[in-house]
User: Fold this.
Amino acid sequence: MRQRNGFAHELNKNKGNFLLMLPGVLYLFVNNYVPMFGMSIAFKKITYGNSFVETYIKSPWVGLKNFEFFLSTRDAFLITRNTVLYNIAFIAIGLVLSVACAVAINEITNKRMAKFYQAAMILPNFLSWIVISGIAYAFLNARGFINSSIVGLFDMEAVSFYSEPFWWPYILIFIQVWYNLGVNTVIYLASITGISGEYYESAVIDGAGKWQQITKITLPLLKPTIITLTIISLGGIFHANFGLFFNVPRESGVLFGVTNVIDTFVFRALRTGGRTEMAAAAGFYQSIVGFCIVVLANSIVKKISRENSLF
Assistant:
């Protein structure tokens, strides 16, 4: 009874704040929690009816059979390896460059230039992957900028990028890091600006230079943000950026060995077989594995430094 009265009192006292929070809570519920009902489709064999309810009721339960297509295909190891290794590279390289850029921008004394660099770095996030695919093609095709300008300048033989798999791990990593660098930099920059200036003033009095201030104050105080964002990123290690891996290589079959990931594999399987339950099984598989990795990573962080753990 006391808890109810306490909650009612808190609700009445902060009703304005709760009202402002309501749209976000409703969006979260509709967008994140209601679709969880669809996870059960991963354990059914879809038999289409006249409506969704009829389809769901008539579709028989098949247990874990929909998950077998990952293990039964000869590409199972390949697509899993590509998905995991690419994401590890994205997380590691993106982390180092984002922190470095955030520290560098923070050191710029001209605020207009600092804002210009932030805006320029975050601009790629406003572009669709179709546009980015076109930009990449303009650079990489046989008559593109690289072959006509850079390669031609040194009288070298033109590189057929869309038929040579060797280059694509580097190309995809570069594009993904470039695409997300601005957003991650802004997050780390916000954390840096939240550090009290008294730390730096004391360091200057003690004779510390810029490099010592960065290594002894900025980076250690950034550690909680770095750990939190890294753990969250690990949750998506079995998810791939579909736009990056599908649009940028332009469906070149020769490149499937280095560009085919779980998401593109499922899409192509759906396009040829049209089995919705397979896509649901893939999504369920990726989410469960991602959740387990987050819990495992958080447990490791908790043992090393409890105050920096996510939960």
